[in-house]
Amino acid sequence: MPSATLMVIDDEKSIRDIMQMTFEFEGYETVLCESAKAGLAALEDTRPDLILLDIKMPGMDGMEALDRIKEIDATIPVIILTGHGNIETAVEATKKGAYDFLSKPPDRDKILITIRNALEQTELRRQNEAMRKELEGADPIIGRSGAIQNVLETVQRVGPTEAYVLITGENGTGKELLAKAVHKYSKRAAKPMVEVNCAAIPNELIESELFGHEKGSFTGATTQRFGKFENADNGTLFLDEIGDMSLDAQAKVLRVLEEGTFERVGGSKKIRVDVRIIAATNKNLRDEIKEKNFREDLYHRLNVIPIQVPPLRERREDIPLLVDYFLKQVCVKNKLPAKEIDEEAVEVLKSYSWPGNIRELRNAVERLAIFVKERITKQDVETFIMGSGDEYGSIFNQEMKFQDFKDQAESIFIQKQLERYGWNVSKTAEMLDVQRSHLYTKMKKYGLERDS
C-alpha cells in the first residue's frame, strides 16, 4: 500500500535494515527505532499507519511498550515480532490489542500480507466511522461491537458495487437502515431508493404496485400508473419483507431481474429498467423454500451478498450507546427536560433479552423518559420496563383502549410517587409540579389511599 508509513521498533540493526529494504521496495515509508523508548518518543512527532514491535529489548520490553502505544493511539495496528515466541505471549499480546504475532526472522511474504491486511482493516474502520458520522444526521447506525462492525464493513465493501443484497434478521434489528446505508454508498445514491413493503400489500395488488398498470386494466384503474420498478429506474429498489411475497409475484419479479424488462398490468409494451435490488426478510428463506413458500431460483438471484443483522442480545455492549442516543432523542421529540440514567439502570437494560430488538429498546427508553421525572434509576427500569412483581409490567402487555391505558398508567404512577414521598400530598404535588387540589382530585378519581 503506497504512501503508508511503517514504524519498526527493534534493537537488532540487521532486522531493522532488512525490514527497511523490504518495505521501501514495496513503496512504504519506514521509520526505524532502536528501542521502545525511542519509538515512543517518535510517536510524539509522527503517527505511523502501522507499528512492528519487538518483544525482547533492553530497558522497556515490547509488552510494556504495547500498553503505552495503545494509550497514545489505540487505532494504530501493532504487529508483535519475537524470536522467543510462545502461545502464552501471543495470547497476552492479543489481549493487549496487538493485531498479530510473528516469529523472527519473519517470512517476507507472510509479513507483507499481514501488513496489507492490517492496513486494509484499519482503513475500513476509519471509513466506517466516517460513514456512521454521515448517517447520524437522521438515522444513525450506532454501535462499536464486533458484530455491528462486521456488518458495517460488509456495507462498506458492497455499497459501491452493483451486487444484489439480501438482508436478514429479526424484527426491529434495523434492516431498513442497513438498506439505506448500502444505497447511500452506492454509485446510485443520487437516484431514489424506492421501498416496497411486500407484507403490507394485498396479493391482488402487488403486481400493480410493482409494475404499474394501464388505464382501464381493471376496476378502479382510472388512470395510468407507474410501478415501483419504473420509479426506481437507475436507482435502488428495496423489497422489504420479501419472504411474504406471493409465489406469483415472485415469478414476475424473477423474470424482471433476468430480462430487465416488464409489462404494466393491462399493457403490452416492454419497459426496460435498470435497478439494483436490495431485499430484506425476517424469515429463514431456506426453510420457506422447503415449505414451497419461496422460489429457490429467486433466492439464489437475490442472495449475492448476504448480510445477517445481529439481534440486540448478541451485541449487548452497544446498549449503553443506544440508550444514551434514544434518551436524548425522545426528550427533544417530546419536549422533555434532558435526563440522565444511572449505570445500574443501564446494566439492568443490558441483562434483558430484547425480543423486539432495537425497536423495543427505543420504545422502552421513551417510556422511561416520559414516566420518570428526574434521573432514571435501576428501580425505575425494573418498575416501568421489567414489571418487577407489580402492575407496571402487565399493563403494557394487555389489549385495552388508549384512554384505559392512560388511566391505569396514571393511577399507578401517582401511587408510586405518593409512596416515594411517604404519602405527603404537598411534597408529592410539589415534585410533580401540579396543584395540590389537582392531585387530590386524581387520588379521588383512582381511589388512591395510603393502605391501597
Give the biggest beta sheet. Answer: 5 strands, parallel
The Rg value, from CA coordinates, equals: 30 Å
CATH topology of the largest domain: Rossmann fold
Tell me the name of the CATH homologous superfamily of the largest domain: P-loop containing nucleotide triphosphate hydrolases
Please report the distance between the alpha carbons of the first and last residues. 73 Å
**What level of helicity do the residues show?**
40-55%
Secondary structure tally, helices = 20
Tally of DSSP β-strands: 12
Number of structural domains: 4
Spans of at least 5 consecutive residues whose pLDDT stays below 50 are 388-394
**Proportion of beta-strand residues:** 5-15%
The coarse silhouette is flat
- CATH architecture annotation of the largest domain: 3-Layer(aba) Sandwich
Strand order of the largest sheet: 2-1-3-4-5
* Content-based structural category: alpha/beta
Mean pLDDT: 86
Mind telling me the CATH class of the largest domain?
Alpha Beta
Notable traits:
Helicase, Ruva Protein, domain 3, Rossmann fold, alpha/beta, 12 strands, 452 residues
